Amino acid sequence: YGNAKFHVVGRLDMDTSGIIVIGKHSHSAAVLTKNGGEKEYIAIVEGKLEEPSGTIDLPIDDSDPAVHKSFIAETGQPSVTEYETIATNDVLTAVRVRPKTGRTHQIRVHMKHKGCPLFNDERYGGDQILKGIPSSSYKQFIKKCFEICPRQALHAKTLGFEHPRTHERMFFNSELPEDFASLLKKWEEIV
Q1: pTM for this entry
Q2: Active site residue 121
Q3: Residues in the chain with pLDDT < 70?
């Protein structure tokens, strides 16, 4: 649109791939922000979740953007995340995640709290050598996986919202990026 301004309605953490919505005008952006939207992410987390599906309802304190830290705290803002296991093995779990609120690093913080940080999430501990067979070949395998997907394994897959003018419910999907899909394929080798 040339020099026209655009208005980002949602945001993604740095190194998170996927879909976002942008308002063409400030009015449409305001309506989209007010009405919220339905979001679904795909994440690969370390380990196996105790419950294959559930709701995490734990407040997050993200009040210090200067140091950009987020953590579970009773004094934090209400934060709700629904999750459902898609596939799992002894080392990694693919999860469908639906955040119901929008706190900084919400999915990453909630998964860390469940003891299953996102794969290669350096801020929340998912960049350590993963649990499993402590052999040198296993460590090489993990190192190769970090090279394949050099970021936290989080992808904004689906976005749904009400169109600000027509009020039609709209849904959009984003394909898994190459690094994410390659990581899943690599893990199929040891399943």
Answers
A1: 0.89
A2: no
A3: 1, 64-68, 130-133, 190-191
Give the number of other Cβ atoms within 10 Å of residue 70's Cβ. 24
Q: How far is CA 63 from CA 34, 92, 167, in A?
A: 21, 31, 34
Which member of 13, 61, 62, 121 is catalytic?
13
Q: What is the pLDDT of residues 24-67, one digit of tens each?
A: 888 888 888 777 789 999 999 998 999 999 999 999 998 765 56
- Calpha distance 191→15 (Å, rounded): 27
For the chain, what is the HEC assignment?
A: CCCCCCEECCCCCCCCEECCCEECCHHHHHHHHHHCCEEEEEEEEECCCCCCEEEEECCEEEEECCCCEEEECCCCECCEEEEEEEEECCCEEEEEEEECCCCCCHHHHHHHHCCCCECCCCCCCCCCCCCCCCCHHHHHHHHHHHHHCCCCCEEEEEEEEECCCCCCEEEEECCCCHHHHHHHHHHHCCC
Among the listed residues 51, 92, 112, the one whose alpha carbon sits nearest the alpha carbon of residue 184: 92
pLDDT confidence of residue 65: 59
